[in-house]
Amino acid sequence: MAFLEGPSPKQEEFIKQELGEGPGDLERGLRDLHSMCAANPYLPQPEALDTNLLKTFLRGCRMDFERARKKLETFCYSRSRYRDLFEHRSLNEPPLNDVCKFLDIVPLPKLTDEGLRVTIFRVRPNYPESSSDILAAVRAVLLICDVRLRDETLIAGDVFIWEATHVRASIAARVAAAAGAVRRSIQLAQAAYPQRMRRIHVVGAPALVASSLNLMRACVNEKVRKRYYLHDKTEELLEHIPARVLPVEWGGEEESIEVLNRKWRRRVDEMRDYLRDLSELCDVTPDTLYDNDIYGAVGSFRKLDID
How many Å apart are CA 174 and CA 304, to the nearest integer? Predict the structure, then answer.
């Protein structure tokens, strides 16, 4: 059962103004996306796409229909282009169950006062070295993203928290070895997912992961690079995020990361059929569609636009 909470009535009014959503815009946008899918033989038929997913695309693109069409098209085509990133659609079965010993991926239930959704990425203490498979971690992150697209409510944007206190020296080499998958996932996050990235908080990052952090920053545009915040301790997050949103072990009032992580793993399994169907949406996309780079600029992710 989905447990992401939506905005209050006052927040809803503010968020719609922020997104430029007027009366009837959502219905017009849905008709527009349905028409696009119906006219393209390589996209799923309109009835195959969940309505809430389409709403999330429209709102994540600030009701810009052209931008929403382009992102949805890229989202569908990427299922065929990068099949390796969308394999293994469960966090409770091999091989992704192993990466859960390494990384917690936890979107928090409550929104901030600004209407932002906070997602925690926490490297677990005492993780087995064998579990720190970066490609598997990328697949797990995209898996949670797909569930969120289905479950998300009206939000103003995203806040990501990377808690890296327990990262070991070996992780830098693993990230470097999987640099292609990391770049593709960041590229997809910008080009194929309707995100409005507002802030990225990195907590407790040791010097040894500086190269990995620089890789991530190099893959986003200048606007996003300015939204990085570095912290020594999780307590500093309370200066930016209300206590009612943050987990209890970080001085907040929400359930612990461990409890929320278990809930998310159950939610992913509840969505098994939906996720399988989502992975198969564009399984027959011909390679000729990739003659022109669908992401705008080959190898130059920083040119991609993001709010």
Answer: 26
Q: What is the extent of the structural domain holding 127?
A: 95-269
Whether the pLDDT of residue 80 is over 50: the answer is: yes
164 vs 208: CA distance, rounded Å: 11
301 exposure class (CB count in 10 Å sphere: 0-12, 13-18, 19+)? buried
Average pLDDT along the chain = 88
Report CA dihedral (291, 293, 294, 299) to the nearest 10 degrees: 150
Beta bridge partners of 229: 201
Question: What number of other Cβ atoms are within 10 A of residue 269's Cβ?
Answer: 14
Is residue 264 packed enough to be buried (19+ CB in 10 Å), middle (13-18) or exposed (0-12)? Answer: buried
Type of residue numbered 77 = Y
Task: Find the CATH number of the domain harbouring 232.
Answer: 3.40.525.10
| Residue pLDDT, tens place only, 36-50 | 999 998 899 999 999
Residue 190 inside a domain? The answer is yes
Residue 263 falls inside a structural domain:
yes
> Closest Cα partner for 134 from 106, 163, 162, 170?
170
Answer yes or no: is 104 within a domain. yes
Three-state secondary structure call for residue 51: helix
Supply the DSSP symbol for 41. T
The per-residue DSSP string of 104-153 comes to EEEE-SS--TT-EEEEEEEEPTT--GGG--HHHHHHHHHHHHHHHHHH--
Query: How many beta carbons lie within 10 A of that of residue 115, not counting itself?
Result: 23
Task: Give the model confidence (pLDDT) of 217-255 as tens digits.
Answer: 676 667 777 788 889 999 999 999 999 999 999 999 999
Model confidence at 213, in pLDDT bands (50, 70, 90)?
Answer: low
Q: Judging by beta carbons within 10 Å of its beta carbon (0-12, 13-18, 19+), is residue 67 exposed, middle or buried?
A: middle
